[in-house]
Amino acid sequence: MDPAGGCPHADNARLLARGAVAPVVLPGDVAGMAVLGHDALKEFLAHPDVAKGAQHFNALRDGEIPDGWPLKTFATVQGMTTADDADHRRLRSLVSKAFTTRRVEELRPRIETVTAELLDGLDEAARAGDGVADLRTHFALPLPMGVICELLGVDAEYQDRLHHLSNQVVSTSIGPAEAMAANRELVEVLAAVAVSRTREPGDDLTSALIAAREEGGDRLSQHELIGTLLLMIIAGHETTLNLITNAVRALCAHRDQLELVQSGKAAWPDVVEETLRWDSPVSFFPFRYPTRDLTLDGTVIPKGTPVLAGYSAAGRDTSAHGPDADRFDITRSGARHLSLGHGPHYCLGSPLARMEATIALEQLFTRFPELDLAVTEAELPRHASFVGNSVQKLPVRVRG
């Protein structure tokens, strides 16, 4: 796996031509596997003999993984994504109350208001920049970051730093010292948030998690609290940020598809779902571990191997999506994808991410129907990671 990331689709196609499961070399020459085919990934994500707990990671358990390994946080953070069975159900039940259909729908007016305000800011930035502004900086980032921080009760003063640190955590190309420093500071910031909410509880998820821990005694440890906040911050804004960014890029590159939705021949949720399939906001997500030697699509994955879930590859798997799987088509019939997960670890925040992206895209292209990229796709700098799948900047010209 290239630690510098880059566009994954050409490499994914080459790997898929060989099979649905591939051996990979992770940073630091750590042996792993990646599941790339749609059907194989769907089976793997829900398989009863596949675990998330780090105790099942052979190389980590045997002391072969150094502290500064850039992917170590994905394996060792204490929270839903590294818990199994009863622990997973306990942690998930505490967080799920914030993402019920009713609570998410109650956020709609606030999201619509914030979106409109951010579009004003995008317009001002473009006027100050000869008609060009960075859509990620002024729109795609502050929307989901603001919403998840509001849900968690995180003060605005922490938001920029949290985004920078979460970027460091998901990077696969930084050095050991930098990785350890970013993780340490991120834990410190989130601990400060927890202290603030302990002193001044509010109507937010952090206060609710703290109350549950205090009332239930051992229901949520301090490490689990911080780990849950870390996961919520990263997953709650990075995924939606990439989703909005990738959708805008796709629509600008496929003006015929944009015209379909602008003319009412397709709907904005169709754009969101096709973007999730065609250019998944997460490319390869770490880790899952077979608890026994597992044969998947004819390939044996040895017990205790760290396995990447290849969402970007599965989204363009021709065996699942047809020979035109690499074509962006919002009218695609029977479209299905795994980009928000599958099985017991299916993304709890998926309704919120879908709502945010739908509102963002509809308001953006209603306000600026001629919006287009200000540079070519090839000039857009990619994420330095094979985990996140998007670009670092998105300069757009808001008016034709």
Automatic annotation (TrEMBL):
Classification via PANTHER family: CYTOCHROME P450 YJIB-RELATED, P450, PUTATIVE (EUROFUNG)-RELATED
Q: Which SUPFAM superfamilies match?
A: Cytochrome P450
| InterPro entries for this protein | Cyt_P450, Cyt_P450_B, Cyt_P450_sf
**Family the UniProt entry places it in:** Belongs to the cytochrome P450 family.
Protein name according to UniProt = Cytochrome P450
Record Gene3D superfamilies: Cytochrome P450
Task: Please name the CDD domains in this protein's record.
Answer: CYP107-like
Report the GO molecular function annotations.
Answer: heme binding; iron ion binding; monooxygenase activity; oxidoreductase activity, acting on paired donors, with incorporation or reduction of molecular oxygen
State the species of origin.
Streptomyces lunaelactis
Pfam hit, one: p450
